[in-house]
Write a structure and sequence with these properties.
Blueprint: E1 37-47, E2 53-66, E3 69-74, E4 77-79, E5 87-88, E6 92-97
Antiparallel strand pairs: 1-2, 2-3, 2-4, 3-6, 4-5
Length: 99
């Protein structure tokens, strides 16, 4: 049996610079299992337009509160010349429910 596959050229515009000026973020789409626990870490570095730097270390704790539901707590620590007071950032409390 002979199979012929046609190949068409694909044109793309600047696929090497997808993140320039566009911040990206990855989010969970499925909550963790009921009564499960997770510890995650966030490391984020950025340089502002005026040449200052910002570094964030953010540990996150997640817990499977109910079925299809998780609660998370993130406590970020911020450092660098772009931050006025080095130390504790904005504490985030999140809830994820999967319908």
């Amino acid at each position: 049996m002979f199979v012929l596959i046609d190949v068409f050229p694909v044109l793309a515009a600047d696929h090497y610079n997808l993140e320039r000026g566009l911040p990206t973020r990855l989010e969970d789409s499925i909550p963790i299992a009921y009564r499960s626990r997770e510890i995650q870490g966030l490391l984020h570095w950025e340089r502002t337009d005026d040449g200052k730097e910002r570094f964030v270390v953010g540990p996150r704790v997640e817990y499977g509160l109910w079925y299809n539901t998780q609660i998370s707590l993130t406590v970020p620590f911020e450092f660098g010349s772009a931050i006025e007071d080095d130390g504790l950032g904005d504490i985030e409390l999140g809830l994820l429910y999967n319908f």
